[in-house]
Amino acid sequence: MEIRSVCTASIIVLLLSLSSFLKPSAGAAPSAQLVTWMCNNGTFYAPNSTYQSNVRSLLASLAANASRSLFSAGAVGASPDTVWGLALCRGDDTNGTDCASSCLALAPDVAFGRCMGVKDVTVFYDRCIVRFSFRDFLASRDNGQVQTSASQDTVTRDGDARRFDALVVSFVGALADWAAFNTTSRFATGVMVSDQGFPTTSNDVVHNINGLVQCTPDQAPAQCRECLQGLIDDMPAVFNGNVGGKVLAVWCYLRFKTSEFFDGTPMLKLVAPQLQPPTSTDITPGGNGTGWRQHAATVSAIILGAAFILACISMVLIWRNARTQFAYQEDDGPASLLFDLPTLRHATDNFAEENKLGHGGFGAVYKGVLPHGQQIAVKRLDKASVQGLKELRNELLLVAKLRHNNLTKLLGVCLKGGEKLLVYEYLANRSVDTFLFAPDIEKRRLLRWETRYHVIYGTARGLLYLHEDSQIKIIHRDLKASNILLDSHMNPKISDFGLARLFDRDRPSTITSQVVGTLGYMAPEYAVLGHLSVKTDVYSFGVLVLEIVTGRKNTDLFGESAVEEPSTLLSYVWDQWLKGTALETMDPLLDCEVAEENEALKCIHLGLLCVQENPADRPTMLDVLVMLHGHESSFEAPSKPAFTYAYGDQSSLDDTVSGSDRRAGEVVSSVNGMSVSEFQPR
Fold first, then answer.
1. Domain ranges of the chain
2. Which of 104, 250, 336, 399 has the most CB atoms in a 10 Å sphere around its CB?
3. pLDDT at residue 654 in the model
4. Separation of alpha carbons 657 and 666, rounded Å
């Protein structure tokens, strides 16, 4: 670095330091607090040496540059006295000058005080990070220097502590996703609000969890997310009900606390799911329980009756206002759920064949463009479709109340002129199956492992919202690859709620006489006995995960030799798991590296846990998200999946559907024949 630039940088830092004393106290920047530091002993420099001079110049330069962009990295000096360094200001510092003067300017106190003579030093303040070294750590991005700390105040009861830790991991994971994939600053803050209070050792009852995550902004989204995931993986070993904590590293860090600690409005506001401890009342196949069945039937009747009344009210209100012109606000999007028919006819070119995206049990789906340029997907009910009318009513009642980044958005409805239309956001990349099972290999190659993992994670978040976080508890009942749509950034969104079921939050399960869904994705207790719970969706999710990892449909047949009976996907993956060769099931198009293979093995393990025969053994979707953030080595061993039999092994199938249950098995086939969605998603 030239002497002129070093001197200029030093003058800037000096002026910044002086300005902090000249400012009125009311406008002074928050003073930085020293959190921890590391004098990485082993290599030393002599006092007043060239290396020490280069360190001073580098720290001054880093502070000056970071005052403009909150981040700076570089090197000063020639070999053997070259010094590499990095400085990062916290992302909620809206004025980098304050960070330089009140935080980065303090780094020399540690460098030439506590760590005097040490060539490799890392300093963590609460509002900035500084590191310098004689090694070029900028090239290697080694994140091994991790420091952790935890609050002394903890959640009191063991059960509450475990649930609190699970919430923290899920919450920090959501912040990591947001920072990595939705910001260029690689920074995110948020708050998770829980109706369920957690008593602590300080005699407080906490409801909020505040969080902050940050990476250096020079990292790509995937690099940032991987960096934060490495810290999240360390959390279970560090925190045990602690109401606050930090996991600090040079390239990324995270922090959580029940009280507010960052500046400005939280970037994310989440509602915590109502966490209940596992109970023995979770459903299992079989059992008598006549009184329970009668009570479940009564509850179902009440729910259905209420839904029917709401449907009637909705239909009347919509018909009375059908002539109302659809209003649109440029900033807020659709201002009403009502579209008029001429608008939709014009948008779809009068439902032209070339705009048709597909056709299913509901009817045809068309692409359209509204006058202001917004693209939409329009579901048009076939006039002779009884099933479609039920689906329309179901979607209208349920989806209009749902708002989540991993669910398709219902924009509106039109009931006029004999037409029954639902209007959704248009998703450019259509559905997962159009990539995953495409006959064109090159199209399948577009679904790289990073995208597949992102689809698995986003789908899990969407299901958790349906099961726990939304105002109404919903079981989807038809989760499959064709119902996971992808936007222009390949973000997954769960779609097609025509078969979804409103569920009583106070009951873990219910029984239905109408089994609907898609064979291959239906859980055994539901397909055979009509037992319905959130674990029904968990099973479907497990099948989907195994399809995503293997790149094969659950209906595909597998056989290793000409004399071997072909088997189903679940049987094939289970057999390979028992042999210790689970990675052999991976889609050969992935060409995964070691890190990706670890993630793939984790997903295979997770998928097998989700498709276990006993629903009580399957994880909840909150458990799934926690496991996606954790190490595969900490997972429980899966038991044998349901429906694992060779294709020609009729005896295995007879054992599954036998005696009094055989009739239920026949019902599955007849209902499914009507309910499978064949159209290509929006």
1. 3-140, 148-271, 307-425, 432-504+511-673
2. 104
3. 39
4. 9
Structural contact between residues 582 and 573, judged by C-beta atoms closer than 8 angstroms: yes
Contact 401, 358 (CB under 8 A): no
Take residue 389 and report the two structure tokens written for it. Answer: 């009318």
The question of whether 332 is a catalytic residue gets the answer no
Can you give the pLDDT at residue 596? Answer: 79
pLDDT along the chain (682 residues), means of 10: 38 36 41 87 87 95 89 94 95 81 91 93 94 91 83 85 88 91 90 89 92 94 89 86 94 95 90 52 36 41 50 47 35 56 92 85 84 88 63 64 82 82 89 93 91 94 86 86 91 84 66 81 89 93 97 82 67 93 92 78 95 94 86 87 58 36 32 32 36
Structure tokens at 63: 């502070």
Question: E strands of 304-409, at which residues?
Answer: 328-329, 333-334, 356-359, 363-369, 375-381
Please determine whether the domains at 3-140 and 307-425 fall in the same fold group of CATH: no
Q: Is 505 exposed, middle or buried (0-12, 13-18, 19+ CB in 10 A)?
A: exposed
**Catalytic entry in 93, 433, 478, 537:** 478
Q: What DSSP line would sit under 384-403, residue for residue?
A: T-HHHHHHHHHHHHHGGG--
Closest among 559, 553, 578 to 641, alpha carbons compared: 578
Assign domain 148-271 one CATH number from 3.40.50.2020, 3.50.4.10, 3.10.50.30, 3.30.430.20: 3.30.430.20
Q: Is 379 annotated as a binding residue?
A: yes
Cα 356 to chain centroid, rounded: 31
User: Quick check: helix, strand or coil at residue 423?
Assistant: strand
The per-residue pLDDT for range 454-485, each reduced to its tens digit, is 999 999 999 998 888 776 788 888 999 999 99
- Name the β-bridge partners of 124: 36, 129
Buried b (16+ CB within 10 A) or exposed e, 614-630: ebeebbbbbbbbbbbbb
Both tokens of 379, joined, read 């579901």
Kindly state which CATH superfamily the domain 432-504+511-673 is placed in: Transferase(Phosphotransferase) domain 1 (1.10.510.10)
244 Cβ partners below 8 Å, 6+ apart? 150, 151, 153, 256, 257, 258, 259
Q: What is the pLDDT of residues 120-157, one digit of tens each?
A: 999 999 999 999 999 999 988 777 778 899 999 999 87
Give the CATH architecture of domain 3-140. 2-Layer Sandwich (3.30)
Alpha helices in 184-289 (DSSP H): 221-238
Q: What pLDDT is recorded for position 163?
A: 86
Task: List the beta bridge partners of residue 412.
Answer: 423
Question: How many Å separate Cα 528 from the centre of its chain?
Answer: 32
Rounded CA gap, 546 and 563, in Å? 26
Tell me what pLDDT residue 507 has.
65
Q: What are phi and psi of 198, to 5 degrees?
A: -120, 110
Q: How many CB atoms lie within 10 A of CB 411?
A: 22
Long-range contacts of 72-77 (CB under 8 A, 24+ apart): 73/138, 73/216, 73/218, 74/1, 75/1, 75/136, 75/138, 76/1, 76/6, 77/1, 77/50, 77/51
Q: Look up the CATH number of domain 307-425.
A: 3.30.200.20
Give residue 530's pLDDT: 87
